[in-house]
Design goal:
By secondary structure, the protein is mostly helical. It has helices spanning 2-22, 27-44, 46-54, 56-59, 64-85, 94-113, 126-137. The radius of gyration is 15 Å and the shape is globular.
């Protein structure tokens, strides 16, 4: 039953990422909007977010669940590729960069959820922290 819920949520994320990708906003804006899809999901559906991204049993699933999870990530990778083509992100392997961005986002969400995100640590909001990271990664700023 939980696998069916997770599969449906990954389908939803895939559609949301696709809608962002198809939008007319600039690539860096698409990236932030795609990250916000997951951040908003973590706020609006915390238990389902933890199911998708923190449950080892779900992560070990194969078949349809794995296929839909990878489809969602593939949509995110395309957004990263668009950013790379626009020179908004560095030219490194796209899946690696997408994975690092996702891992950072999940780490920031975990800090927020555990109450350890504090301005005195330089972190106060997940979105603004990610925006700073994307800015720092931009080859255009060098």
């Amino acid at each position: 039953m939980l696998a069916a819920v997770a599969t449906a949520d990954f389908v939803m994320l895939t559609k949301a990422f696709n809608a962002v990708r198809q939008s007319s906003i600039k690539p860096a804006g698409k990236l932030m909007k795609a990250l916000n899809v997951v951040i908003d999901f973590s706020v609006n559906h915390p238990a389902r977010y933890r199911l998708l991204f923190n449950d080892p049993a779900i992560a070990a699933q194969k078949g349809e669940l794995e296929k839909t999870a990878l489809a969602a990530f593939a949509e995110f990778i395309v957004i990263v590729q668009e950013c790379q083509a626009a020179q908004a992100l560095p030219d490194i392997p796209d899946a690696t960069l997408a994975g690092l961005l996702f891992a950072t986002m999940h780490g920031l969400i975990a800090l927020r959820e555990s109450g350890r995100m504090h301005p005195e640590k330089g972190l106060s909001v997940v979105q603004s922290s990610l925006k700073t990271l994307v800015h720092l990664l931009s080859p255009q700023r060098i």
